[in-house]
Write the structure tokens for this entry.
Amino acid sequence: MLREAILAAARNGRIESVVTHAPVSRSVVRRFVGGADTAAAVEATRSLLADGLTVTLDHLGEDTTDRAQADSVAAAYFELLTALDTAGLTGRLGMLNSKTEVSVKLSAVGQALGADGEKIALEHARAICAAARAVNATVTLDMEDHTTTDSTLEILRQLRVDFPETGAVLQAYLRRTETDCRDLAHAGSRVRLCKGAYNEPESVAFTKRIDVDRSYVRCANALLAGDGYPMFATHDPRLVEILEDRAQHYGKTDFEMQMLYGIRPDEQRRLAAAGHQVRIYLPYGAQWYGYLMRRLAERPANLTFFARALATKG
Ligand code: FDA
């Protein structure tokens, strides 16, 4: 119920306007979002790297409904990559991995723009991969709802011809994902495994929490048994424990853990101190409202934090 209410608020323009303009929002936003612009994102990145973490940055935007908007999202990534490089925050960690990378949603760079959408998204993604390569950074393609999975994996396949370092994302809640994990668990293949964040139908996805968790473990086993580079994205303490155990079982040391900015920050640092490579997903940009509301909906307990910030006018 509460989750539905928060998600409804996320779609309500009036609430958006109030929250976005409330001075108190700043401290809440600062917890979950790296800032409203490139300069703030660079500073947040600097601070995470100083703590021994690695970073993947996501430029937050509205739905991309025309070509000009897709172009401007790509331009935002070019600006970001240049700024990270100028600040000395980029660099390779081996052949296929980098300390700072960017996460790109293909829908934001045009994938949904009708018949030419895939072509436009591929062109933009290719240009972002080239800009990232030029500064020793990498790119991972975020995964969106299940109607886009085939298209996204096909664009990934084409990108990897020239940019084999491009990361994939697979969602454990989809019934197809265990097979996709086996297909992508080859040498040189970076694959982020997450539970999945969209409302998907029973026909294509596990909808019970326990089934999603079991699928996550099967998918993780498939990735750990392969020769690729798994990137385990979860805040779930039970899964983190299982992943450490399964990695040991397979004798796999070449993998990383990933979490969202502001979620379980102490655990992020604990894992890094324990010797894991940990990457923080750092969203930034002026369009932070929808992202923030989705994080609050995922865990209504975070509302306490929001309410406290409102009360103290932080
Ligand atoms: P889940 O939400 O089930 O939480 C499990 C447990 O984790 C909780 O019971 C609690 O103990 C702990 N926990 C969770 N949130 C907490 C909080 N705020 N504070 C304290 N404890 C908390 N999705 C997608 O569809 N496509 C994508 O490309 C990506 N990319 C992505 C990148 C990264 C780095 C991450 C971490 C996540 C994604 N996701 C994603 C989102 C993902 O699919 C999923 O929706 C969220 O990570 C939530 O799932 P968890 O695995 O964290 O467990």
Summary: The chain has a mean pLDDT of 91. Residues 142-143, 169, 171, 194-198, 233-237, 258-260, 263-264, 281, 298-299, 302 surround dihydroflavine-adenine dinucleotide (CB under 6 Å). The first helix runs from residue 2 to 10. The radius of gyration is 19 Å.
